[in-house]
Amino acid sequence: MNQEPRQTILELDGEERFDYFLDTVMEEREIWILVNGDNQFLKIVSDEDGVAYLPVWPTEAFAADYAAGSDGLVPKSLSLPEFFRKWVPGLTRDGLEIGVFPGNDGTLWIAEPEDVKKDLQDEMSF
Questions:
Q1: pTM for the whole structure
Q2: In sequence order, what E strands does 9-94 have?
């Protein structure tokens, strides 16, 4: 994917990026997160409301773009079965939400892990 289409997708609003995320994850069957050198995942806490979330991306390229200029963050893929089986219960237990596909404008779709799982499973049933 070249830079122009990625830029266009990043400029979509949060809901449109969420839909793009669902479609792409269904095709690729994986979700991308960022981890540091110790394999610890990136967690963000919102300054506005204190909500803690795991940012996720539909492709390695989008995750890598977000990590550009960061200190040692690299994309890591999670298979959908691993995400459903391990990550959703773990995030729920830890009180973390999921921040789906941060965009250029700083907006993103924040949802409960079970809601993201349900949305993905709903997409799989079509």
A1: 0.92
A2: 30-35, 44-45, 52-56, 74-79
